[in-house]
């Protein structure tokens, strides 16, 4: 009898080991077997999508200022302003996309909806440079101010398509790389190590797609035509969405657990309300949930630290049991981790302003250079590929050498 019971316990423990321990589930919310889903097999579908998405994005952004000046007859200052506004929208939209995924829909459904908006915007953009009534009037005059301006309809369709592409990018950028990271179980040592390498090779994928957009697509746009130059990435992006859908049976998913922004505000509010209360000398007296509560969600319990010690007051036990007044230690520590990222974010502002010039004044300056290599003319926007190539080489050196050191 005891041997049977013992065998049942062993079998149960073995079955537990076969399942992921980080709270990953399938689309129906059921626990999943580690061997059936996730890791590099699932990430291969995501990588294909990312290559085509970067291919499309850089195929548009690299040469956009030339389209605005040569085809829409805008001045350099106006065109540069429009390019940076569009780029700014694309990089701010992921904040909204991340919130929707974390608090409501989850990463898979947020990404899928956003990718469909993404493709729709790209299709409309291709139509705006291809259909006769939507294309701006051609002009060969050197002074673009003397050219006939595009109609309101033509401008409306083009910029609507451009910003639809941007809104779609907000939902995909915020969730694609995190969905990829979700394919690795941090509670399993082998997968945890693979996850570190995944981020480096993900960046390599981004730069590879960017390189193809900066070179191949830009050449097509300058020498063959904008219809084909936008049509190729449109088809590629549509195929990428189908590839993403094909990988659905292999993905691991995390259930929406609320936005970290809400948690941060919650912790700050509670700490400020209790700023007069002294912190207990024993950190064990602070409010914390049981380990089982975190295990159910596939989360780790975090011990209290002295970093940003003031925030620990949010976990001081009082008579109030309100969720806005009594915060578990682990949530306090997660908020600290969020706040510690701000110095890194701030230091990235200045480099980002310099990188923004690559797609505007950098390209316009390139039009004045002698770009001839024999009979071949390097497209002005392809000069940005030197930045991309240096990044590709850096990622390989970093992952293969510096990480190991």
Automatic annotation (TrEMBL):
Keyword Metal-binding (UniProt)? no
- Please give the chief subcellular localization of this protein: membrane
Domain of life of the source: Eukaryota
Q: How does it sit in the membrane?
A: Multi-pass membrane protein
User: Which keywords fit this entry according to its UniProt record?
Assistant: Membrane, Transmembrane, Transmembrane helix
PANTHER family for this protein: OLIGOPEPTIDE TRANSPORTER-RELATED
User: What name does this protein carry?
Assistant: Major facilitator superfamily (MFS) profile domain-containing protein
